[in-house]
Design brief:
single chain; alpha+beta; Deoxyuridine 5'-Triphosphate Nucleotidohydrolase, Chain A; 4 helices; about 15% helix
């Protein structure tokens, strides 16, 4: 079975020394790595017939963390406050530009200041019929949040930039080189129509629930989960 290829091209040229995007599975956050798999560290029922697994055993969370690819900041950015306004300095690459607040005055993430924007050095190409969802790197602590978007990267192959807001507008400090700035998840475009499930669908859903109840551990993972690959 052939695999779809997503191509990242450095707009600065292949010899420019910046780290390439990587599979999100290679940048799993430390909090997740450090979390025990089971409450109390023991793989056993919780004493009331339930399960003792922590979020570490939640495969939907694992799939979200490891989906797609991570673009990281190619240089240091320092944020200070000047007269109550965030002020950005960067070491190279003209990595930050700005959108005036008037371009998104009612966005729910607005914080009263202009929107800084990561100038992404990576152009992306996907196969025909595939787009990319650009997301804030999920389940990761960050001092900023990008404004997510979807781009048809089979046709639009120029770099896509990432407006963002500080999660705390009073933040001061370093955003170091290598900080995850965007999670890139390719998907196949399809047309969808919504339906409300029938009684037969309800019976099938009940059957799934009953199957889950036959196991204490790794229920979804061992019965229903399909592994995803992003290399």
């Amino acid at each position: 079975m052939s695999k779809a290829i997503i191509k990242f091209t450095n707009k600065l040229g292949n010899n420019y020394p910046i780290d390439p995007p990587v599979s999100a599975s290679k940048l799993v956050p430390d909090w997740y790595k450090n979390t025990q798999s089971y409450v109390g560290g023991e793989k056993k029922p919780d004493g009331q017939g339930g399960i003792s697994g922590t979020i570490k055993r939640c495969i939907p969370v694992f799939d979200a963390i490891t989906a797609g690819y991570i673009i990281t900041s190619p240089c240091d950015v320092y944020v200070s406050q000047k007269e109550g306004i965030p002020y950005y300095e960067w070491s190279s690459l003209d990595i930050i530009s700005f959108h005036p607040i008037e371009q998104a005055p009612e966005h729910p993430a607005k914080n009263g200041f202009s929107y800084p924007k990561w100038m992404n050095p990576w152009a992306i190409r996907t196969p025909k019929g595939y787009s990319v969802s650009f997301m804030q790197p999920v389940h990761r602590e960050s001092v900023f949040k990008i404004l997510e978007g979807v781009v048809d990267t089979d046709n639009y192959t120029a770099p896509v930039n990432f407006p963002f807001v500080l999660t705390d507008p009073t933040f001061e400090g370093l955003i170091p080189v290598g900080t995850p700035i965007a999670q890139v998840v390719p998907f196949k475009r399809e047309s969808w129509t919504m339906e409300i499930g029938s009684e037969e669908d309800h019976k099938q859903q009940t059957s799934v629930t009953q199957k889950l109840q036959t196991k204490f551990f790794d229920r979804y993972k061992t019965i229903f989960w399909q592994r995803k690959e992003y290399k």
